[in-house]
């Protein structure tokens, strides 16, 4: 079937956009300090926390990359299995959630500085910018796909408009306004996906017809991928989630430990519902639209569903993409201001100035993110790069703070440097020739360096380790 735009859908996108704007402006009036802007005044209850965790994690990375692109490009089983890394990551975070909450830091770089020193903090801020700006870039692309389907404009033009929308919404209220809009978006997405699933399968002619229309490899367990290739897609997700600054900030923003744990459990339950449905929808889209950009798989289904259902679904997808873009833009700007600018350029900065400078920086980072959309050929490729830069450069050293108190200052810093350099080196020189994502090399290298350097420096650094415990 040929993909056609559906002009009626734009009204659902606009309607939900107006709702998000009103909600965002309302909550932005509660922002009076930088803590309000970055950590929502540490006021999030379990329901809002669950919603903002889900909306932050299941954004364009899932509905245009991740499960979506995996199901369309390789088949249903590789996509369904891609939920497992997220569940492992969330379970680990659940175990250490109280420790994250009581650290109470604005950024993971601040956590790393306590353990490893200021150079670790600076390196972390640099890695966060590299990774999060990349993540924001494919949120722009995802919204561009939606605007293309609903208006008929080119995805490129849609991406420009999408960038402007996300940048504006990120500026107005920070986490104080992002978290409630996240929660509303999460519930809309769950409803939209559940309603759309049976109707999409019916529009494709039923499950047997879907199976008949896709390549044979798309029904195999591995989708024609080798074990290393599969791990190359799964490990970046796991290691980003285990150390994701956005997630840590939301944990720190909850109003108490009980809210943190209940919100995390709700996040797990919602994820088990949402991500398999995305996989099945994208697989269904492969049967109906065999020649579209993989990133458009689920979005394209809105053109064959009843207008009301397609409208709810496209509004839901818009919501997830926008809120994820807001979150990662905000998080990247926070790192620049708190971990670099306030420490080394303007040391006498006051709270009001932090708030102003963070808001001013968001558009600049947004422009850089937009420029990245021109470099990577697919959403999935930029997603894997962004996840791996962060997952290899930060996560092993960060998890060691909570799970491995014997780790030394030298080990943490060495691990971060190794993870970053190994990722960039592989991405630029070996990814294209091998077809294997850099995570297969960089994450093991970062972990090995962390352990080996700890063994050789533990006695020398034992005083620091004891103090940290």
Automatic annotation (TrEMBL):
CDD domains: SLC5sbd (cd10322)
Membrane topology term: Multi-pass membrane protein
Keywords: Membrane, Transmembrane, Transmembrane helix, Transport
GO terms of molecular function: transmembrane transporter activity
Pfam (any one): SSF
InterPro entries, per the entry: Na/Glc_symporter_sf (IPR038377), Na/solute_symporter (IPR001734), Sodium:Solute_Symporter (IPR050277)
GO CC, one annotated term: plasma membrane
Membrane-crossing segments per the record: 6-27, 39-59, 71-96, 116-140, 160-179, 186-205, 225-243, 264-284, 296-322, 356-378, 384-404, 411-430, 436-458
Localization per Swiss-Prot or TrEMBL: Membrane
Domain of life from the UniProt record: Bacteria
Protein family: Belongs to the sodium:solute symporter (SSF) (TC 2.A.21) family.
Annotated protein name in UniProt: Sodium/pantothenate symporter
Species per Swiss-Prot/TrEMBL record: Jeotgalicoccus saudimassiliensis
């Amino acid at each position: 079937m040929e993909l056609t735009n559906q002009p009626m859908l734009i009204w659902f996108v606009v309607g939900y956009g107006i709702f998000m704007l009103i909600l965002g402006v309302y909550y932005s009036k509660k922002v009076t300090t930088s803590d309000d802007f970055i950590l929502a005044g540490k006021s999030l209850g379990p329901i809002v926390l669950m919603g903002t965790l889900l909306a932050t994690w299941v954004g364009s990375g899932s509905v245009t990359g991740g499960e979506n692109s995996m199901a369309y490009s390789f088949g249903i089983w590789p996509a369904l299995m891609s939920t497992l890394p997220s569940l492992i990551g969330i379970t680990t975070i659940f175990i250490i959630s109280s420790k994250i909450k009581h650290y109470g830091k604005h950024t993971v770089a601040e956590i790393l500085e306590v353990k490893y020193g200021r150079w670790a903090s600076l390196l972390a801020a640099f890695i966060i910018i590299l990774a999060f700006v990349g993540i924001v870039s494919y949120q722009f692309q995802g919204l561009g796909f939606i605007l293309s389907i609903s208006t008929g404009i080119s995805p490129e033009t849609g991406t420009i408009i999408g960038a402007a929308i996300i940048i504006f919404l990120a500026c107005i209220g920070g986490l104080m306004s992002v978290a409630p809009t996240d929660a509303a978006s999460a519930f809309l997405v769950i409803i939209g996906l559940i309603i759309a699933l049976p109707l999409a399968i019916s529009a494709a002619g039923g499950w047997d017809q879907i199976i008949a229309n896709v390549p044979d490899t798309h029904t195999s367990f591995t989708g024609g991928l080798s074990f290393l290739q599969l791990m190359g897609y799964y490990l970046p997700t796991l290691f980003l989630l285990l150390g994701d600054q956005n997630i840590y900030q939301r944990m720190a923003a909850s109003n108490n430990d009980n809210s943190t744990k209940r919100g995390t459990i709700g996040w797990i339950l919602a994820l088990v519902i949402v991500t398999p449905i995305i996989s099945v929808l994208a697989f269904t889209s492969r049967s109906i639209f065999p020649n579209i950009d993989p990133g458009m798989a689920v979005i394209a289904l809105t053109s064959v569903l009843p207008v009301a259902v397609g409208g709810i679904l496209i509004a839901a997808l818009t919501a997830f993409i926008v809120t994820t873009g807001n979150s990662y833009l905000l998080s990247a700007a926070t790192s620049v201001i708190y971990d670099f600018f306030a420490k080394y350029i303007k040391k006498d900065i006051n709270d009001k100035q932090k708030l102003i400078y963070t808001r001013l920086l968001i558009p600049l980072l947004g422009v850089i993110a937009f420029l990245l959309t021109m470099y990577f050929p697919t959403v999935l490729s930029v997603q894997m790069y962004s996840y791996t830069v962060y997952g290899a450069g930060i996560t092993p050293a960060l998890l060691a703070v909570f799970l491995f108190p014997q780790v030394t200052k030298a080990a943490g810093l060495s691990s971060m440097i190794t993870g970053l350099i190994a990722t960039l080196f592989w991405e630029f020189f070996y990814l294209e020739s091998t077809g294997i994502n850099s995570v297969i090399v960089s994450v093991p290298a970062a972990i090995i360096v962390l352990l080996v350097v700890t063994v050789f420096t533990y006695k020398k650094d034992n005083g620091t380790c004891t103090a940290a415990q």
